[in-house]
Amino acid sequence: MQQRQLGAGGPMVSCIGVGAMSFSDFYGATDEAASHAILDAALDAGVTHLDTANVYGMGRSERAIGSYLRARPEARDAFTIATKAAIARDAEGWRYFDNSPAHLAAELDQSLGRLGVEAVDLFYVHRRNPDVPIEEVTGTLARLVEAGKTKAIGFSEIAPSSLRRAQAVHPIAAVQSEYSLSTRSPEMGLVQACAELGVSLVAFSPVGRSLLTDSSLSFEAVQSLGFLKPNPRFMAPNYAANIAATDRFRTLAAEMGVPAAGLAVAWLLAQGDHVIPIPGTRSIAHFRELVQGTEVALDAADLARIEAALPIGWAHGDRYSADQWVGPERYC
User: What is the CATH number of the domain that holds 15?
Assistant: First the structure.
């Protein structure tokens, strides 16, 4: 398994990780046994980076990882664990973003309890509160490092300008952003800023929420998923147009002898040594397809063929609905 450094001076981790949102019911029903099976497969394949959050299943994802580590304590030294906090809900159920020192410290303590570890390797602010200067939030995170509760810090879905401001306060190990052949906006500054500053770009949804796989979610399946049903790319008529567009990619992957999901991962890995995709899955077979992408070395001709099949801007519909856009920083 290829290795990549998680931030300047950080640990070496596998070039892909496990996005543990799939350890909750976000993309369909699952259970702890299925999550543990993915973790077993990850260990066998040398996939060592785990990415979770306090809100994934309201702690369920972290508890699944924690119970696995209790059953296999030797796995703690094998895995690098990242978690996140800052998304909260008020008494009426409305979502908001809490970047206060009290909230982040308390949520990290609860995450450590669910995971059963003394410290995580990376702790992200899941969403920025724009009313709190990022310098202040970075200082809060730095104090959690000083307290020994996390070894490194990061942010999710921030702009390159915000990253530069944060980096001036304390080293940022990673920025997490949606990045794939279907979402190319990080190339408008974030990919470049991360490379310049020695920050890992941790790419979530690297296979386009199934669009870049050989078995995309059916329109009927999408109707049962709370996040995807109102997502513009999965609503009619965009859904059918996106399936038709990605058929070209599936055909190309078959010609190259690679699963479509594996080719999507290989493309991301070719975008820079600082890019670390974190695909999530509930399927061992799909996990193995994703891992195949780490074994594919794409040359300039391969990349050109991929670009011809899915040129930048091919996707129909925005990546988020208006409600889903609340929180991520827009910068282009």
Answer: 3.20.20.100
CA distances 292 to 47, 144, 261, 264, 287, Å, are 12, 37, 9, 10, 9
Q: Six-digit token pair at 5? A: 């450094």
CA distance 309 to 137: 41
pLDDT over 90 (residue 90): no
Q: Alpha-carbon distance 211 to 215, whole Å?
A: 8
Checking if the pLDDT of 332 tops 90, the result is no
Q: Is 287 contained in some domain? A: yes
DSSP string, 40-61: HHHHHHT--EEE--TTTTTTHH
- In a domain, residue 232? The reply is no
Strands 49-51 and 80-85: parallel
> How far, in Å, CA of 329 to CA of 259, rounded?
33
* pLDDT for 28 beyond 90: no
pLDDT at residue 241 above 90?
A: yes
Residue with tokens 């310049």: 196
328: in domain: no
pLDDT of residue 29: 83
Q: Are 307 and 263 in contact (CB under 8 A)?
A: no
Mean pLDDT score of the chain, rounded to an integer?
96
274-299 pLDDT, tens digit per residue, is: 999 999 999 999 999 999 999 999 99
User: Do the domain assignments include residue 242?
Assistant: no
Residue 94: the pLDDT is: 83
Say yes or no to pLDDT of 134 above 90: yes
CA dist 318 and 6 (Å) reads 30
Q: Which of 56, 68, 239, 320 is catalytic?
A: 56
Q: Which domain holds residue 142?
A: 3-209+262-297
Domain count, the chain: 1
Q: What is the pTM of this model?
A: 0.96
Total H helices, total E strands in the chain: 12, 12
Q: Does 96 qualify as catalytic in the annotation?
A: no
How far apart are alpha carbons 16 and 242 in whole angstroms?
Answer: 25
